[in-house]
Each structure stands twice: as structure tokens, then as C-alpha cells.
Amino acid sequence: xxxxxxxxxxxxxxxxxxxxxxxxxxxxxxxxxxxxxxxxxxxxxxxxxxxxxxxxxxxxxxxxxxxxxxxxxxxxxxxxxxxxxxxxxxxxxxxxxxxxxxxxxxxxxxxxxxxxxxxxxxxxxxxxxxxxxxxxxxxxxxxxxxxxxxxxxxxxxxxxxxxxxxxxxxxxxxxxxxxxxxxxxxxxxxxxxxxxxxxxxxxxxxxxxxxxxxxxxxxxxxxxxxxxxxxxxxxxxxxxxxxxxxxxxxxxxxxxxxxxxxxxxxxxxxxxxxxxxxxxxxxxxxxxxxxxxxxxxxxxxxxxxxxxxxxxxxxxxxxxxxxxxxxxxxxxx
Length: 333
Hints:
11 helices, 333 residues, alpha/beta, 7 strands, seven-stranded parallel beta sheet, single chain
């Protein structure tokens, strides 16, 4: 049993490593590459006198990581920003800091993507505001969680990563139409290559996803995460068709975030979500192999959050995106 578990882990890690290697290419025609930073993207737009003045931007996961770096960039470009977060205190803290540095207008709103009712609450708030939406960004994502069901009875990672964004986007479509030409951008990941959507058993409860045994918790959480990222890509294709008369929808793979940075974020996240904190699904016997993989990943591909947010910011702002077909999968290359 342990031998099969080790083989499965090695195969998974090698697949992810090779997939990561293939994403690192020469800089593109605009000079941007895998390690381009948000600051470089901003400078590119500043030289063309492009900004977001008068634009309404919504960002989920806005108080940490990639989402926070995007918010900082949008604030420096004079956008009006709604920061959505499940941690109101941290959101207010980050918003106040950004406002002092940029004088932009930021508002924090509570949004737990693990709760569909909470999504509808935010929609009702926006309906009351009755404002057009120029840019809608989904930068919040869950991964590495043991099996857990939401209050709605759905698996937590798939709900947070796909079902809630799916619901919120459809509810906000009339406001995105009023923001024409609007943009919807969702973070995906290389992990989508691991699994298609398991249509006949999406939640995998006690089948391919169980918290018992050695293999199931680790493989189950990755399959769950992977199919949610696949769902992001498929939904973006359909959404782009819905938006063809007034905007574009795209997904972006931000690349591999430096493990030390990611690890610190995950520690903080566990503290913030005390009641729902996730324990590690990796057995102690396999952690040395996992650590080896992360060290190799860091050395070759590790990004800071500022680098990981660069392509997302580009997609939100670049005028030339209006001339593309949309529904595209973008990588930080």
C-alpha cells in the first residue's frame, strides 16, 4: 500500500514539474515574460497614458496574495475598487494602507465563497448600488483541503473555486453589460491537467475523495482542486459567448508561487479561518518527497505574488484584449 502511494505521489509531482517547465518560455512580443512584475506591467501602461480612472473593479480574495497585488495596481491606476474577502478585519487594514498610499477609493465587503447564500447577499448589495462593472476578478482559490461539505451540501473546494463564481457572475451579468467593454478574469492553474470534471461523481464523497487511509486524502484533494480549475476554464468559454456583445472573459494561470511565500500565506489563512482550518492531507511519510519537489520548484520557477499577479493585471487593463476573441487560457509567459 505504501509503495503504491509513493509511486502515485512521484508520478503526480513529476507531471506537475514537467508541466511547469513547459510554461517557462522566452518573453513574448510585448517584452513580458514568466517573471514579469506588476510594476513592469504598470509602467508599460503608464507610457501609453492608460489608466482605470472612472472604472469599477471587483476583486475576490482581495486582502492577500495575488488578489491584493492586483488591487494595489488597480488603485495606482485610479480605479474604484470593491475588495471582497471573508476576513473583514484584514480587508479593512489592507484597504486603509492602500488608500493612504494611492488616495484611491476602496470598499471592503464580506464574501465567503464557500456559502452560496453569502454570494446572493453581495448581489443584493450590488443591485442596491446599481453601478456598472468594468472588471470582475476571481483571485480567491482553495486547495489542499480535506473533504468537507458546505452548508449547501456541496464539496467545499469545488464550491469556493467554481460554483460561487459561476453564480455570482451570472447574477452580475446585467451590470457587466452596462460596463461594456467589460472583463471577467478567473485564476486557474496547471493542476487542471490532472483531472477533467468527474461528472458522474463530482463530490467524490467516500469514493475517490475520503479523509480516511493514506492515498485517498492526498489524491482526493488534488482531484477536487483540479476539476474546479477545469470547471473555471470551461465556464469561461461559455461566459465569453454570453458576453460577446459587450465584453471578454479569460482565465489566467499565474504560474507557481514561491513556496516560502505560499507557505506563510497558508499559515496565516489557517489562523484566520480558525473554525474551518484545514489540516494537512499529506501523510508524514510522504512529506520529505513533497519538500524536495517544492525546493526544486522554487529554484526554477518560484514567483513572488507581485510576479504572479502580472498577467492578471495585464488582462484587466490592456486595450488590445478587446480585439481578441476572448475565452482564452493565458499563462505568465
